Each structure stands twice: as C-alpha cells, then as structure tokens.
Amino acid sequence: MFRGKAAALVLIMALASTTISGCKSQTTTGNTVVTQSTQADSGTDGTTDSSTAEATVDKDFSDRDKDGSYDESSAVKINLNSDKAEADGAGVSITGSTVTISKEGTYLVSGTLDNGQIIVDAVDTDKVQIVLANAGINCETSAAIYVKSADKVFVTLADGTTNKLSGGTEYIDTDDNTVDGVIFSKEDLTVNGTGNLEVNASYKHGIVSKDTLAVTGGNISVNAISQCLAGKDEVKIMDGTFLLTTSGKAVRSSNEDDTSLGNIYVAGGTFTVNSKDDSFHASKTMVIDGGTFTVESGDDAFHADQDLVVNNGTISVTSCYEGLEAYRVSVNGGEISIQASDDGINAAQPKSASAEGQDTSQGDSGKEKPEMPSDEQVKEITPRSDENQSGTQSDENLPQKGQQRRGGVPGGKGVMGGGQMGGGMETDTNAYIKITGGTVYVDAGGDGLDSNGSLLISGGMVYVTGPVSDGDGAIDYNGDGIISGGTVIAVGSSGMAQGFVESSIQCSVLHNLTAQQEAGTVITLKDKEGNELICFTPEKKYSSIVISSPKLQTGSTYTLTAGSEQAELTLESVVTSNAVREGGRGSMPPGNNR
C-alpha cells in the first residue's frame, strides 16, 4: 500500500495555474493552501547548465527499438507444452524443455513451460527477436530467457497478450556466466511491444542486461527479491507502464569497469514503484525527460552518484528517506512532490567514490546513508513518527518582537537562526542543488533542500514544509545560497533556519517568529496597498519563514502575517532577516549538513 499525502501531487499539478497577485485562484490539499501568480517565474544565475552531465547519457532509441511489429508469416513458431517444446523452422534446437535459438531471425513463442528455458546462443553479429504471445516460462534453476551471445536481442510483447516469466529461489551456473535474472542477457537487450509481461523473481533480479537495457513499450510488472530492471551500462526507458515491487532497488545501472557508464535515462512511461532500497539508482548520471512516477522507497527515491537532472515529468514520492540525491542535482522542469523522513533534496559527494579528484573521505561534509538490512534482519528505514513530524520545539532561539536584521552573515554567507551547532562544516565546491524551472513541493522530516555545496535557484516554484526539529532547516547549504528568479516559500523550525546570500539578484526574506505556529496556520504576505502576494498554509508546525519572489522589490514595505503574529518588513537590501544569534556564534557556517 502506498503511504503519504497524495494531496501533495494534486498541489503541484495545480500550482502552475494559481496566482501570486491576490488569492484569486486557490488550491487546497489537506491543510495546505498555496496561491501563486499566473506570471511565469524565471531567471538566470550565470552558472553552468546541466547539458554537460546529460551529454554522457545515451538518449537514442533505434527504429527497431521503438518498433514492436513483426511478420508472423515468416516467424519461426515455437510452441511450449508443459515439459517439452516444438518448432517449425530453422535456427532452433530443442533438448527436453530447453529451447536454443542459434540464428538471426524472428521467433514467435506461445504456450507454457513448467520448468524450462529459452537460450539465445547466436554469433555476435546476429539480431534476434523473441515475440512473446501468451507465453509462460518458469525455470527453477536459471533464467527463463537466457541470452548468451548475439549482437542484440529484442523481447517483443505481442499486442493483446499476457506473458508470465518466473524462476526458483536458487540458480545453478551452467557456464562461466553468473546468471541472476529471470531474463538475463550478456548483450544489449530491448523490451518493446504493447502486450503484458509479468516477471516474478524469487532468486534475485527481474530483467538484467550486462550491456544496455532499453524498454520502449509494454505493460510490465516485476516483483523481485533484489532489482527489478538492471543494465550495467545503462537503463533507458522511452515508454511503457511499470509496476515494480522489490526488497532491493527497483531500477539500477552500475558499471565499475567504466566510470562514464552506469546511467539511467527516462523519456516517458508510467511508473508505480515500491522498493525497500533506492527506487532509481545510477552509479553515474540519471536524466529524467518525462514520465509519471508514484514512488514509495525505503531509502532514496532517485539517487545518482554524480548528476541527477530532471527536465520534465510528474514525480510523486509518497514515502522515502531522501527524495532526490546526487552530487549535483538539477531541476529544470516538471512537477515534483516529495514526502521524506530525512532530506527532501540532497547534494553530497557519494561516500565511496572520488569525484573529480576530491578526497573520498567525507567526514562531516557528506551524509552517510544507512546500510540496508539483509533479508534476515527485520529492520527497515521508516519515516519519522507523527509525533516528531508535528512536535514542539524550544522557543529559546526565537527572536523577540521588534527585532529585525538586514543583510547576510559576515563573509557573504546566508542568514542562519540561533542554532546550537558547534564546529565548522566543509564546503564542497563541486556539489550543488540548482533549480531553474518546474514546480517542487517538499515535506521533509530533515532538511528540505540540503546542499554540501551551493543552492542556486533561478526559476520555477519551490515550496518547502521543513522540519520541526531545531537540528534541521527548511533550507541548508554549506556554500552560497543564491536566488535570481523563481518563487520560494520555505517554512520550518528556526534553530538552523537559513536564507539566501547578499550576492543574490532577487530579494528574499527570512523571518523567524516569536512563537511556534500550529500546523494549518496561514501565512500571507501583502504589499503596502494591501494586495495579497503570497498565501501559504503549512501542514506542520513552524517558526521560521523564507520567502522570495520576483514581486519583492527593495525599498518597498510588506506585511507578513502568520497566525496572530504580524510584521512590517521594509526591504532595504536584497536580503532582509530578523535572524539572531547567541553571542560568539557569528562565525557559524551557513549549513548543518551531516
């Protein structure tokens, strides 16, 4: 069962059409109400775009990848019947319940094998198409479809058919290859067509390619002990409908031999994912150009060791430890909703990798991910309790009425609240979260946006309902937090509250309240004429508010209201804040990454 607040997805899908100039159009989801303008928010921060990272990812699909058609009249028919099989053409040999394809061609498979397999053992220039047309294959000790050798193999799901592949709980190697998937290929593998495929992997993986796994269509359901879809060089998906359930990672690409590989590319498709480990995991780069995702993850929903780029798509993460995590995270478009027990979006160098010549020892500059439990251990990562999500916090760090501070922290760093952090945090100059467009909604038990380097926002709409604990913040970065466009509303606890830096182009406000407000307490920002610019209703308790919008101008006065508290804010600088510190803490770094 998928948990979390599905209303968050409704929220972000409606935000694009709501208003920032008065509450003319209002979207309500549970306790959350956000109003925004129909005027597009955009801007530039002068930083490098994500095209360099995307250049390493293969986005191409061949015509044959995309074409699930076949000529039935010329195809070799293979009929399966319990413990035996028969074929009516050349290129096929049958021994008991083992069918071996040895030549290029199209092979139409129907019927059922109770305990057998199809093996492709052709020369490395041959392209083989296996058309599944109401086929069922179970193999207790190996892969139901095993590709030993070929140039490329296409598994086509015939229109209107339902196909089932499964395996036992222990595989026995019959050659030098370690076979660990219900469909296992040593070569490039493409799944196409419009039919249905059900894969049950009781041993380890569902569909595996030791080169590139491409999927361009079909209705695919995979239930696996370990990984559902895996490609050593790359997993690339053009379209299809996917139901992926696993005790491990749902979609994974990892290549230890070539550090330029291990990529995931998604152009489209509909995904429903439930995984105990990461839902999507790339050892190099992940690019999402489209698709609709509903994800429940026991760890990261989307993880890339190097670059994670979201250009489009609708992503709803209903439960996870962290939502988007990579060394560098870029959001250029799409609609993203994240419910995270820890950080919503996190930019940090991977623990075990050396990125661009940097020291791999993380110390306090990188967040160490929890080890996933073995199947024998009943110890799962779960979201924080409702008590922690909505509990109280100390008022000792809250400012007194009338206190206001303009500008950033000395040294050009962002404005922080009166947190209790001791010692310095290293800044990773290569790490960043960059948002140039799209809509992002984050509900985080830890930090909402957490970067071990910089936070760069030049467009889009960003809404963060952050932590209630004083050890985390709605916004957290170790380098610079620069905003040059877009709209940001971030609320949470005040202990480690952080705003944007003075070098930003667009005005912003960080305002810590004198008392913690209850969940559902409306926040409004009005100009001096009384026009309502912002209206936001957080779903959790909060005592700190960060707002930035193209509508904010230096020299202007605004009225900020949160429940019974009201403050007049005159923007005499690009950064306006009332955040205060205890004596001697002025040298505190701008982040609290762990």
From TrEMBL:
* InterPro entries on file: Cthe_2159
Short name of one Pfam family = Cthe_2159
Keyword match Transmembrane helix? no
- List, as start-end ranges, the regions of compositional bias called Gly residues: 408-423
Q: Looking at the record, which segments are called Disordered?
A: 23-71, 346-423
Bias (Polar residues) ranges: 349-364, 388-397
Composition bias (Low complexity) maps to 25-55
- As given in the record, the signal peptide range reads 1-21
For this UniProt record, give its keywords in alphabetical order, as a comma-separated list. Signal
Chain intervals with Basic and acidic residues compositional bias: 56-69, 365-387
Q: What is this protein called?
A: Carbohydrate-binding domain-containing protein
Taxonomic lineage is: Bacteria, Bacillati, Bacillota, Clostridia, Lachnospirales
